[in-house]
Amino acid sequence: MEDLKKQIIEQLNLQDIKPEDIGNDQPLFVEGLGLDSIDALELIVLLQQFYNIKLVNAEDGPKVFHSVRTIAEYIISHQNKND
Amino acid sequence: MYINGTGIISPQQSFNHESFLQNMAEHQGEQMRCIEPDYKELLDPKLIRRMSRIIKFGTAAAMDCLKDAGWDAVDAIVTGTAYGCLEDTGVFLSRMVEHDEQMLTPTAFIQSTHNTIGAQIGLSLKSHSYNNTFVHRGFSFEHALVDAQMLFHENAAKRILAGAADEITTYSHAVLKRFNIYRKDASNIHLLRNPGKGTMAGEGASFFALHSEPNGNDYAKIDGLKTILANGNENMEPVIEGFLAAHSINVSGVGLVLMGVNGDEPHDAPLQKIANGIFGTTPVFGFKQFCGEYPTSSAFALWMAANICKEGKLPPTLAEVALAKPLRVLIYNVDLTGHHSLILVSSC
Amino acid sequence: MPVFVAGVGVISAIGNNVAENQDSLKKGIHGIAPMAYLQSAHRNRLPVAEVKLSNDELAQKAGLSNRISRTAMLSMIAAEEALADARLPLNTALRKAFISANSVGGMDKTENFFPEFSANFHAGRLRDVVNHECGSITELVARKIGFTGFVSTISTACSSSANAIFYGARLILNDVADVVIAGGCDSLTRFTLNGFNTLMILDEKPCQPFDENRRGLNLGEGAGYVVLVSGKIAAMLQRKPDVQLSGYANANDAYHQTASSPDGTGSFLAMDGALKMSGLKTSEIGYINLHGTGTQNNDIAEGTAIKRLFDGHYPPVSSTKSFTGHTLGASGGIEAVFSVLALQKGCVFPNLRLETPMKDLPFQPVTRFMDNLQLQHVMSNSFGFGGNCSSLIFSKS
Question: Cβ-count burial of C14 within 10 angstroms (0-12 exposed, 13-18 middle, 19+ buried)?
């Protein structure tokens, strides 16, 4: 999850934020980090670029990207499938 | 229309309102890039992360302008940009090539649309008001001003934020350079004093808080403007005289001319002719030694004219020349592609 | 003081001129198909609404070099048709203006230049980028048709050409111009195709605007212009104009960079502003040509705004993007032409492929072509990125 946090910070250009600042279960959207729909699209690209996972339905975004932990769990469960 | 506030980010120390062109910042080479402020003071940090340079300096200049005027809302936002958001355009294009149209990121695309600056300003102000963006080369700023003029005339607005921005990027400069328009190794300090072949690239954002009624605290008044798309070597003197006549003055009524000479001899020759012709006895100065050559540079010139009108004198970086009172300043700009514009400004 | 529409011109996926477009609209023939002209990695996946002519064919029609941007060719063809349609008097000294909108200028050529150039700054053909700028495309056409008195270009994403049209009208009302050709153009490019793809709002099937299960939009291309004249010039014309531009407004959503506010604030303000300006009541609008892109977001925002504004008295509405796709910078112009045609012919165009009306809206678009209607006023909506919303109202004069 530490690597994931670094990737998120870089992909979303979250200047002034360090991996330690992001809690594993902290909500990423609306409250917490305050990310928005464009960030969600960026995260979809991140999944594809670094983990080779294609999130086909944009509506699944809020669930998958709720927190760093939910993203990590999604990656682990989908990395074994061949998308 | 009256200028009640300004916000300028340019290759000079123009962002602070304490002094006006007291010293000249030097730039060497082919480009004159902006001296940028600390954006965190003017823009929401959560939004800055997504903004490219032009959006940062465009939005910051606009916010600073409103602060200068003491306004927290406007009835219209009109913007001019000839090149638009080049950095984001370049990023998106290069990713398209690198990744063969796969795994592209939305941010660069969204930010690449020309009206992003105007939209970002509207978003920052939570303003539902009229919002328009002009993207017509050397007329982009002027046509935004025409829109403002019309809105005032129609009584559709009392306060308008009008401005322009254009940026230099690595890619855009590399392309423009191939048209042989830049000097190899120049210094802006000597650019106009040593005419030669080529100019220097510039960039910047200039915003103005305009209103229709004077309040005794304005920088200057914009009397009128005109844009002329030239075909070739037409004689501009009668056009200039006609423009002045439409504002009930003749050439002797003009106390100062700010001319868009850029150091490139073929470009400047007709302008020099006019400076020595109908304006032979008028103080004539260039402005591109401060801001460089770019399509919306006349907005920078307007900032200069506004401050000169307010202070009643020229800054030390121009000259020690007494100016007429009341003062009328004519800005006459010509870009690199036959776009002539005239803006008449007067002191209040 | 009204501003009259003296002529119209259009080229789109459903026709190369006004008559062909009208015929397709009447017969329900849309132009959304597999990519035929644009080269893209998404060729086999994304349907688009291309003008059914190659660059060589367009160049011949436009009287321009085939090395020029496709955007300029489309603009030229539609602008010339509008100008010819207006039959302006030849011997009068008219102050002419050309206000054309587009979103990406000559990008179709720039994106071909870019791969070689990015690898080596000395590579790539310069002529491919010399007309990259939006304003450059406008000027190519302005010079050719002799409308160089006042030439400008507006770019506010999808509301661009609607904004161009009413800026043009105001130039007349403010006595800056006597006759204005106003509208917009855009050609399909990999840049925009990929851009919209990253936003995940493209439909892999022909779009279904205002359908409960809509999946997104299809990109299109084309150009549409109206010739606007003052009352004084209208009186001089051989064929007296029967349509005028009676209302217009622009408002900003100020909600988010790409998403519209759920209650459609910007859309509401634009429509309401146009109505106030024209002095009309909502019940007097005979047809609304929707922005109706087919995205989840736009259609609910626009639909909600209409629900709030028209409150129980809903006129027939439809999205002609179900025919032409979303033509971006050209959409306001093309749809203005369609709105003028609707008025002149007393007809309303269908909203194709509607299967399930949106459950949150108390109205639904018309699904069949209807004519022999007594239409007095038609509204055309264009809502863009960055929340830039514009509405135009055309009326029978």
Answer: buried
Looking at the structure, do residues B248 and B133 belong to the same domain, yes or no? no
Q: Between chains, do C200 and A41 touch, taking CB under 8 Å as contact?
A: yes
Neighbours of A67 (CB within 10 A): 20
The 10 Å Cβ neighbour count of residue C37 is 17
pLDDT at B50 over 90: no
Residue recorded with tokens 């209208």: C234
Q: Residues near C288 by Cβ (< 8 Å), separated by ≥ 6?
A: C306, C315, C316, C317, C318, C378, C379, C380, C381
Chain C: give the shortest CA distance to residue B21, in Å: 32
Looking up tokens 């009008």 gives B162
Same structural domain, C213 and C312: no
> Exposure of C65 by Cβ count < 10 A (0-12 exposed, 13-18 middle, 19+ buried)?
exposed
Is residue C162 within 8 Å of residue C391, measured between CB atoms?
A: yes
> C183 and C321: one domain?
no
Beta bridge partners of C394: C245, C378
Contacts for C243 with CB less than 8 Å, ≥ 6 apart: C4, C5, C340, C343, C344, C394, C395, C396, C397
Q: Residue C158 catalytic?
A: yes
> Which tens digits make up the pLDDT trace of C2-45?
899 999 999 999 999 999 999 999 999 999 999 999 999 999 99
- Residue C213 touches chain A, beta carbons under 8 Å: no
C291 is annotated as an active-site residue:
yes
Mean pLDDT for chain C overall: 96
